[in-house]
Amino acid sequence: MTEASTAVATPETFVPQVSKQRLPTIAAPTNWTELMQFCGDLAKSSLVPKDFRDKPADLAIAISMGNEVGLHWTHAIQSIAVINGRPSLWGDGALAVVMASADFEWIDENESTEAMGVTIIKRRGMPQLRYEYTLEMARTAGYLSKDTYKQNQKAMLQRRARARCMSATFADALKGIAFAEDVYQEK
C-alpha cells in the first residue's frame, strides 16, 4: 500500500477552508446605456425570474427601482415584480428595505391568527403603529376566491397587515412603490 492509501481520515479532512475575503464585486452599470446593455445580457439568463427573460427594459426598470430603495441589482430582480405594468415590491424585499432603514427599531407579528394578520412596527422617534387585516376585510375585498388566499390564508392576511403598516410607517424608505399583493388584486 502507498502512503496515500493508508492515510487516516480526520475530521479536518472533511472541513473545507473558507476564505473570509469576498469575491470582487461585479461592476455595476453607471448610466442608462450601460444598464440597458447589462440587462440585454442578463435577460438571456435562465436564472433571472421568468417574467424578466427576454425583457431587458423591464429588467432595467426593476433594477432602477430597486436601486432607488437601496436594493443591490441582484436583490432587486428577486424583489421587484412587474404586475399589470407596474413595478412593485413583493415578498420579503419590502421588509428588507424597511429593516435596512436607520430609523427601524422593531417589528412584531406574533398576534396574528388564522383569521387576522397583525403587524406592529416601531420607527425611531414615532409611536409604534399597529395594523390588522381580517378575514372579513379579505372577504369584503373579494380576495377569498383567489387561489393564493385559498392556499395560504394566514400568510396572505399577514402580508396585507404588514404592507399597510410598512407603507404608513416607512413611506419615505419605500419611495411610494406599490406592493405586488395590492397591484395583483387590481386585475
Task: Write up what this structure looks like.
The chain has helices at 32-42, 56-68, 73-79, 93-100, 135-141, 147-151, 153-169, 171-174, 180-185; strands at residues 80-83, 86-89, 104-108, 116-123, 129-134, 178-179. It has 187 residues and is an alpha+beta fold. The strands form 2 sheets. It has a 3-stranded mixed beta sheet. A 3-stranded antiparallel beta sheet has the order 3-4-5. Helix 2 packs across helix 3 (73-79). The termini are far apart.
Tell me briefly what this model is:
With 187 residues, this protein is an alpha+beta fold.
Give me the Rg, rounded: 22 Å
Helix content: 40-55%
Q: Would you tell me the structural class of the helices and strands?
A: alpha+beta
The succession of helices and strands, N to C, reads HHHEEHEEEHHHHEH
Span between N and C termini?
Answer: 72 Å
Give average pLDDT, whole number.
85
Shape: globular
Strand order of the largest sheet: 1-2-6
Number-wise, the strands total: 6
Strand content: 15-25%
Number of helices: 9
Largest sheet: 3 strands, mixed
| Low-pLDDT residue spans | none
Based on the model shown, name its key terms.
alpha+beta, 16% strand, 6 strands, three-stranded antiparallel beta sheet, 187 residues
Topology:
Blueprint: H1 32-42, H2 56-68, H3 73-79, E1 80-83, E2 86-89, H4 93-100, E3 104-108, E4 116-123, E5 129-134, H5 135-141, H6 147-151, H7 153-169, H8 171-174, E6 178-179, H9 180-185
Parallel strand pairs: 2-6
Antiparallel strand pairs: 1-2, 3-4, 4-5
Helix pairs in contact: 1-2, 2-3
